[in-house]
Amino acid sequence: MESSPVAAQVPVPAARPRPRRTPIRSRIFRGVQAYAILLGLLALLVVMFAPFVIIAINAVKDPQDLAANGALSWPQNPTLNNMITFWNAVDFGGALRNSLVISGSVAILATTLSLLNAFALGIGRMRGAIWLLVFFMLANILPNEAIVYPLYYMAKSTNLYNTQLSVIIIFTVIQSAFGTYFLASVMRAFPKEILDAARVDGCGRVQLLVKVVAPVMRPSLAVFMVFAFIWTWNEFYLPLVFLVSNSQYTVPVAVAVTQGQHMMNESQVAASALLGVLPCVVFFLLFQRTLTRGITAGSYR
Fold first, then answer.
1. Of 94, 199, 219, 285, which is the most buried if we count CB atoms within 10 A?
2. pTM, to two decimals
3. Does 93-257 carry CATH code 1.10.3720.10?
């Protein structure tokens, strides 16, 4: 009996190749490697957090307890007197307010200025953009000690010395130097198709910046704003020089005044260090998701 032509044309499905099994030795090696990396990261975590734990333990110790049992012992009678004494001695609430005003203003102003500069250099393609970016980087790596004298005389001549406005202006320029380089590098990779489509729709330069570039750059702007806030919060040298009144102290300067030349209360120093680092840690935890999203945003959509 002859087979029908329809049955003869039915293709026979090809056999699927069997997946290759990973050798047992390779799987064991990968498992051991993963556990070794995990243990290494845990050890690094312990090393990083050990100083903070020691500071927190000593901050709630009596000076007598610290002198008798050492810095690594557990506190016998935990107390908050060291923090309360330091808070009242240096008006730490006022220092927190000053640091918040200065750091917040610098973060907003530096991000805005960096966005405008980066738009001109990265999107506008102005002449000499590469050399300007090199100049911004050179200005950013200059140490504060190299620029403190001209800044001091400029603040004196403009009657801005011992005012928060002088520190805000100085740090806005310093932080925007890096911000311009960072954002301009990102904008140079901005998709040209989006820019051309916006120009065809009639967007001017201001509308192109506000409605197209800024929304797409939001993760990078958020990352820079957070870092500008933290960097300004931790600055010590320039606020020490330009803010000489007790009412103008920032948090790092207020922490430093607890240490005398011939006498130092170790428990109070630990309490001041703990109070000084807690706001920065809280701020970082609040904006942790913003940092994560901004850093992992590797492509435009």
1. 219
2. 0.79
3. yes
